[in-house]
Specification:
Number of strands: 8
Radius of gyration: 15 Å
Bound molecules: coenzyme A
Helix content: 25-40%
CATH superfamily of the domain at 15-129: Gcn5-related N-acetyltransferase (GNAT)
Order of helices and strands: EEHHHEEEHEHEE
Low-confidence stretches: none
Strand order of the largest sheet: 1-2-3-4-5
Strand content: 25-35%
CATH class of the domain at 15-129: Alpha Beta
Distance between the termini: 18 Å
Oligomer: single chain
Largest sheet: 5 strands, antiparallel
CATH architecture of the domain at 15-129: 3-Layer(aba) Sandwich
Amino acid sequence: MRQQTDLYVPNDVRLTTPRLLLAPLRTTHAPAFAALLGPDQAAIAMLSHMPDPLTPKAAAEWIELRTGPGGHVFALFLADGSFIGTSGFGGPRDGVPGFGYWIGAAYRGLGYATEAGEACIARARSLGARQMVAETFPGNRASERVLAKLGFVPQGQVERHYPLRGGWRRLMFHSLTIA
Ligand SMILES: CC(C)(COP(=O)(O)OP(=O)(O)OC[C@H]1O[C@@H](n2cnc3c(N)ncnc32)[C@H](O)[C@@H]1OP(=O)(O)O)[C@@H](O)C(=O)NCCC(=O)NCCS
């Protein structure tokens, strides 16, 4: 049954965590987005809809598509202003949003994806979401670990058609019950 949520309110909040500022992602972030993620083809290969090559224009298009109604994607900044990646949720189906994220290579292994994820889940909860889902490509151990740390549970494999990632692919589906 469809859940009652406020998931379609515009994303205009700024969230803070002990080490991060989460600001609503905008197309003005596209140059920094493309500069940080664009050279990292291994990371792009783990992201279902990320264009490759990731030019500033392509990054702006990706951002545009994910920050309309129902989209709650954030640019992540350190206290010194460094842009380190994105995290967010959107595309709700029956009140259940999908969760996605990436962290620039230089900033990985420091707990930032998990820290940002906790803030995103709290935001989703405040908007009324009681469940969230995510998908990982095979072998993405770091992302599986992030999801596990956040409380997601693997639910088995799904087949998805992702043209930018080669067509039909098998991924692991994860879901979170938001307490
Ligand atoms: C997945 C990703 C966002 C993780 O970001 P991060 O800030 O390094 O994540 P965290 O530091 O919060 O947690 C990473 C965890 O994965 C673990 N990890 C990292 N590489 C791993 C590997 N190869 N095998 C097993 N575990 C691994 C880390 O040890 C850590 O777990 P721990 O806290 O128990 O030690 C980052 O690697 C990334 O951007 N990858 C490319 C894009 C991507 O895959 N996005 C997700 C798509 S589903």
